[in-house]
Amino acid sequence: MDTTDIKQAVKEKYGQAARRVTTGGSACCGAAPAAGRGCDPITSNLYDASQSEQLPETALLASLGCGNPTALATLNPGETVLDLGSGGGIDVLLSAQRVGPAGKAYGLDMTDEMLALANQNKHKAGAENVEFLKGEIEHIPLPDNSVDVVISNCVINLSADKNQVLREAFRVLRPGGRFAVSDVVTRGEVAPEIRQSVLLWVGCVAGALDENEYRSKLAAAGFEQIEIEPTRVYRVEDAREFLAQREIDVNALAPQVDGKFMSAFVRAVKPAANQSCCPPACCN
Hints:
Layout: H1 3-22, H2 49-52, H3 57-61, H4 69-72, E1 80-84, H5 90-99, E2 104-109, H6 112-125, E3 130-134, E4 147-153, H7 162-172, E5 173-186, H8 192-195, H9 198-202, E6 209-210, H10 211-221, E7 224-234, H11 236-244, H12 250-257, E8 261-269
């Protein structure tokens, strides 16, 4: 698929999801109308009651994630956090609470509708240490060595240039900074029919990296201490309804999907200043 086509498809679908939320609906990972927040096994039940109660309802309804990076990442008071593909702002607002008034939480998104919704949620929450930026995760509009933690929630898998995303994450992190994202990853061979579907790409599945390839790309970008921890493994029955709604031959493909798609928490660290100046490829 053409990179521009993928980016435009993602932008359109996530813009539609934001518009549904502002008119009283909700969204899910596949950006399809949802009867409830648990519209598919990827997006359901990610935030506990204590977190949900602290946020505007529209932030929860706009959640398109596959995990809860703010619950798994170590965030300290006074730190600066960047959320790649921040959507309606749910993870930015939760991060802002944890880093406190002395800290800062940035959200980066390329979709005008999501940015408008995120800023509405920021004002509803009264979050003064939050800033939403317009841009692409392949070209982060922040200076080198400017953030302590990069988080993301089921967005990197949507990029057609994941190497560039990881290089940019490495660039903006301070030495010793942490990469802590939730993402969909695969394990083993995946049927071409899945990867070739733009709808599934936008729906957080077809663009997913194999877990070993993810590790390799992080290492190539310069990261160390790389860990991938599965948080949800999707079985055949999880995928059956998800695929059937997209007019895909479920009986033919479901057995190939069983256990091969999972949400995972991906951790890595940028080496401290006295260990490395930049990714290995440029330190010649």
